[in-house]
Amino acid sequence: MQERVAAISSTLNRYPDREFTALRNLLADYLSGVLRREGRPTALQAPVPSSISPDMIWAANGSNEVLFHILQAYAGPGRSALGFGPSYSMHPLIAQSTGADWIEVPRGADFAITVDHAVDAVRTHSPDVVFLCTPNNPTGNSTPLEVIEAVYDATDGIVIVDEAYAEFAGPDFRTALSLLPGRPRLVVSRTMSKAFAFAGARLGYAAADPGLVDGLRLVRMPYHLSSLTQAAAEAALAHPDSLLAGVQELSRQRDRMVAGLREHGFDVVASDANFVLFRGVADPALLWTRLVEKGVLIRDVGIPGSLRVNAGTDAETTAFLTAMAEILSTHP
Ligand code: PMP
């Protein structure tokens, strides 16, 4: 990355490639690889597409900006966006910042979204945009492809599948990328912030029908992706295995935390992300404070009786589990 950034530094007097062509090609290659590995079995209805073409790719400074572009283009005043809460807190804020109304439909038991529940919500509210976050932040559980297909069929609006944490998911996870062919209103959003450990560089991306992507060109600021961002991301995508090397270790730490928390009797939501939501906490604010006093910072995401903890290094997991054991032995 340093070499690539140094190499282009003498060209910074010029505007960047506003079509981010090289980056777009690399993102298309990366997602095509994901699809080959994770596309759903061909036995189910539609055939799995063999690749994602560069004209299906959009990118921006973080997937928050990708989502903002989608909402700017396809939501706005007089329109509405619907999400299934609890979910990523920026979805309503981004939607409302375009002037759209936000409709929040509660998730079902164990934060799941079922076909009937989702189709009913979409038919009742007729939103212009539907968000499905899978794996879901902050709960960690994923939504089956059948639900995404059913939501798509039940609406004539845009369906955004936010797969920010997809690389951390277990083998049962199926990416919605495989649903793209023949679904011109579907968009799958991803980010290099999490699995690629690239949050500081700000690179989010999405795949969708080229026509949907074309609409995003109308709302982005001219030259929104700097040459520096493009060069760093291109270098990163040329070495995906090195950048994604942390994913396996983080997933291992997540699973250690799940096991440790279950041993303590907490109700842990099965997580496909790099964090774990655990329920059955009598006083989340108090437990959070006690952990901070022991030098461990986790998140109170405001879900009653719950706290969320992020996967980190082996030493961090040990510190968290040790602190929890100490706190629970003195304040059971
Ligand atoms: N989607 C989800 C579900 C997230 O949790 C986040 C970050 N917390 C984002 C999108 C945005 O990430 P970024 O802008 O860094 O790509």
Automatic annotation (TrEMBL):
It comes from Brevibacterium yomogidense. Gene3D superfamilies: Aspartate Aminotransferase, domain 1, Type I PLP-dependent aspartate aminotransferase-like (Major domain). The gene is hisC. This is Histidinol-phosphate aminotransferase. Keywords: Amino-acid biosynthesis, Aminotransferase, Histidine biosynthesis, Pyridoxal phosphate, Transferase. Homodimer. PANTHER family: HISTIDINOL-PHOSPHATE AMINOTRANSFERASE, HISTIDINOL-PHOSPHATE AMINOTRANSFERASE-RELATED. Its cofactor is pyridoxal 5'-phosphate. It catalyses: L-histidinol phosphate + 2-oxoglutarate = 3-(imidazol-4-yl)-2-oxopropyl phosphate + L-glutamate. NCBIfam families: PRK03317.1. The modification N6-(pyridoxal phosphate)lysine is found at K194. Pfam families: Aminotran_1_2.
